[in-house]
């Protein structure tokens, strides 16, 4: 059997970034992590989230500009070169947050 990456085996878990320089942000992150149901077993995976603290100067990754071929005037004529890049699942589950909570 072929070994699949973890992103394809484990159900997706949204990343929630807590952005603040407050001294209690680490304690809040630990409290939120302990309040979420554990992953695995027969839990509802839609309720499971990963909480990560970030400093106040955290910036979101810049989105790439969409490129459309010059000969395609409508999206109906656009044919993508590939479906997903190899690291797309990893990037969207681990690096790009689904929610950013800021406490300034």
Shape, per Cα inertia axes: flat
The residue-averaged pLDDT reads 75
Number of domains: 1
Order of helices and strands: HEHEHE
Find the structural class using helix and strand composition: alpha/beta
Radius of gyration over all CA atoms, rounded: 18 Å
- Straight-line N-to-C gap: 49 Å
Features:
104 residues
Give the structure's gist in a few sentences.
This protein is α/β, with parallel strands linked by helices. 21% of the residues lie in helices and 13% in strands.
Which helices and strands appear, and what pairs or packs with what?
Layout: H1 6-9, E1 15-19, H2 25-35, E2 50-54, H3 88-94, E3 99-102
Parallel strand pairs: 1-2, 1-3
Give a structural overview.
- The chain is an alpha/beta fold and 104 residues long.
- The chain has one domain (6-102).
- The protein has helices at residues 6-9, 25-35, 88-94, and strands at residues 15-19, 50-54, 99-102.
- Strand 1 (15-19), helix 2 (25-35) and strand 2 form a beta-alpha-beta unit.
- The mean pLDDT is 75.
């Amino acid at each position: 059997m072929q070994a699949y990456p973890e992103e394809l085996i484990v159900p997706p878990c949204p990343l929630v970034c807590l952005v603040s320089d407050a001294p209690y942000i680490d304690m809040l992150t630990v409290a939120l992590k302990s309040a979420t149901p554990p992953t695995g077993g027969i839990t509802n995976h839609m309720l499971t989230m990963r909480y990560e603290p970030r400093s106040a100067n955290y910036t979101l990754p810049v989105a790439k500009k969409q490129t459309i071929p010059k000969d395609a005037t409508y999206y109906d004529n656009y044919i993508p070169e590939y479906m997903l890049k190899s690291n797309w699942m990893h990037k969207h589950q681990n690096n790009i947050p689904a929610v950013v909570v800021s406490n300034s």
